[in-house]
Design goal:
Blueprint (H helix, E strand, L loop, with lengths): L5 H13 L2 H8 L3 H15 L4 E3 L4 E3 L1 H26 L6 E5 L5 H10 L4 E5 L3 H6 L5 E5 L8 E9 L1 E6 L12 H5 L13 H9 L5 E4 L10 E5 L6 E8 L6 H12 L17
Helix pairs in contact: 1-2, 1-4
């Protein structure tokens, strides 16, 4: 059998996700008949039926489910290769993955002293962003699950604080418990994936209450108060990047800049030398 083309995997994945040929064709920007013919040709080449079709529904066969999982991994690997290759240049910006509300203070300090182009991606799965090539570096808690294959630079420690509007009954208190905060109607345990300034605007308007790291206190907007969450532990924040030689110039420069922030910090946890030196 000839090697499959990437286009065939893209077509198949679109149908597998939509389970509807017309919707998949619209998503791909092609007409349904060519898409249907492409899937039929793929099935003949594989010698396996991938979809059960009827006039009312489309569903994956057992073989189709297996091929879907492998196709998604293959396309993710291809996308990762493209991301990493594009960033391994002298002009590509370093991309930092950050969980909303975490490390806001140290990130602001780092961007302030780093004069090379840098982009920030807000996500709740920073490790996947690193491994998929979406980001070059990430701010993580040191107790994050599965840090294998990552180099870590210890940056700072953050205690949890609840962000509330300055008019809230919690504002000015010495501390609250997580259960008290969670009982509020505006509370969300998962910070929205947005820039920190926008998050603060929502808090100031009384539309959001959430728990973030104490490093954010220095960046609080007018009308927002931070209250310590007494029954939750502090977390160590580390800068992480994939182990290996393929590190772009901007990534190496950003890591070197980060080291200047921790001259008086407890130290660094590194699996090897810094990138670029």
């Amino acid at each position: 059998m000839d090697h499959l083309e990437t286009r065939e995997l893209v077509y198949f994945t679109a149908v597998a996700e939509e389970l509807h040929f017309s919707r998949a064709a619209e998503r791909l920007g092609i007409a349904p008949p060519p898409l249907s013919r492409a899937i039929a040709r793929l099935e003949r080449r594989l010698g396996a039926k991938l979809f059960d079709r009827s006039t009312r529904q489309v569903s994956l066969t057992a073989a189709g489910r297996i091929f879907w999982e492998d196709s998604r991994r293959a396309l993710q690997a291809l996308e990762s290769a493209v991301h990493r290759t594009r960033r391994f240049t002298t002009t590509a910006p370093a991309v930092v993955a950050v969980r909303p509300g975490m490390g806001a203070g140290v990130l602001a300090d780092l961007l302030r002293i780093h004069d090379a182009p840098t982009e920030v991606v807000f996500t709740h799965d920073q490790v996947s962003a690193l491994r998929n090539g979406i980001a070059d570096l990430a701010l993580l808690c040191s107790d994050t699950d599965d840090l294998r294959g990552l180099r870590l630079l210890d940056l700072t420690e953050e205690a949890p604080v609840a962000l509330v509007t300055a008019a809230h009954r919690f504002a000015g208190r010495e501390g609250v418990t997580l259960s008290e905060v969670a009982a509020e109607d505006a509370f969300t345990s998962r910070c929205p994936e947005m820039p920190f300034d926008e998050l603060l605007d929502r808090v100031a308007l009384g539309r959001l209450i959430t728990v973030v790291g104490s490093g954010a206190v220095g960046r609080l907007a007018r009308g927002v108060a931070a209250v310590p969450v007494k029954d939750q532990p502090s977390a160590r924040i580390v800068l992480a990047w994939p182990d290996g030689p393929a590190t772009g110039a901007a990534t190496a420069a950003l890591v070197r800049r980060a080291r200047t922030l921790i001259t008086s910090a407890p130290g660094e946890v590194l699996s090897g030398p810094l990138p670029g030196g």
